[in-house]
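Hi F.,

I've been meaning to write this up properly since the lab meeting, where we talked about keeping a consistent format for the predictions we share between groups. The idea is simple: the sequence comes first, exactly as it goes in, then the structure tokens exactly as they come out, then a line or two of notes. No screenshots and no reformatting. I'm using this chain as the first example so we have something concrete to point to.
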Amino acid sequence: MQIIGLVGYTIPLFGNRRCLPYGKLIVSVDGARRVCPIRDAPDGTQYITVNRKRYPVVNAGRLYAPVYKFI
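Output, unedited:
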């Protein structure tokens, strides 16, 4: 499984309940592409869900130039 790209990346500003940036990741799973939303865990980390399994992700880039990777 690998990350192909990032879609709909949003940095939360005033009036939003979220504190971490969010969006959707395009992931290649066994040759098929899927769009998975980035979700927030209660401990402050982020993850995506593919085939009922959680995969933690982290932004290895900067806030305005994100590069998401699997942990």
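Notes:
DSSP finds no helices and seven strands in the chain.
The beta strands are 2-10, 22-29, 32-37, 39-40, 46-50, 53-59, 68-70.

If this format works for you, I'll send the rest the same way.

G.
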